[in-house]
Amino acid sequence: MVEIYRLSPDCQVCGREITAGREQYNRGRRVCDDCKTSLEAIADERRQARAARLVQQLDRAKGAASGPSSKRHVLRKAPDKFVSYMLGERHYEEPARGCKHPKAWQERIKRERSI
């Protein structure tokens, strides 16, 4: 005897029964109309949030790159370290003693940008 298994016509998200012929699929899951609408709305919100984050990152990078302070060094007197800033954020620190930069550069940074 051959047994035929019938798929249950229930929504795989909320469990409600789906009318025959009205089932829809979202990423391989059988869903009802309400669940499909809400899942699509969630996906749209995520896409919009991701796009907004990308636009912010591009604006920040563009604004920082065009400004005079896109990449700079300062000398912090208290710990006696050269601090490198890139795109407005701290990039790395380097002790003033043993610094690999030329002496003329070090003296200029000490005069102009010591904090």
Structural write-up:
The longest helix is centred in the middle third of the chain and has 34 residues, at 33-66. The protein has two domains: 24-66; 71-112, no CATH class. The strands form two sheets. The protein has a three-stranded antiparallel beta sheet with strand order 3-4-5. A two-stranded antiparallel ribbon has the order 1-2. Helix content is 38%, strand content 22%. The protein is rod-shaped and about 80 Å long. The protein has 115 residues and is α+β, with helices and mostly antiparallel strands. The mean pLDDT is 78. It is built from two helices and five strands; from the N terminus they run E-E-H-E-E-E-H. It has helices at residues 33-66, 103-112, and strands at residues 24-26, 29-31, 71-76, 81-86, 89-95.
Distance linking N and C termini? 87 Å
Secondary-structure element order, N to C: EEHEEEH
Largest β sheet strand count, sense and barrel closure: 3 strands, antiparallel
How much beta, percentage-wise?
Answer: 15-25%
Secondary-structure class: alpha+beta
E-strand count = 5
The dominant shape is: rod-shaped
Spatial strand sequence of the major β-sheet? 3-4-5
| Low-confidence blocks of residues | none
Number of domains: 2
Mean pLDDT: 78
Computed Rg: 30 Å
Q: How many helix segments?
A: 2
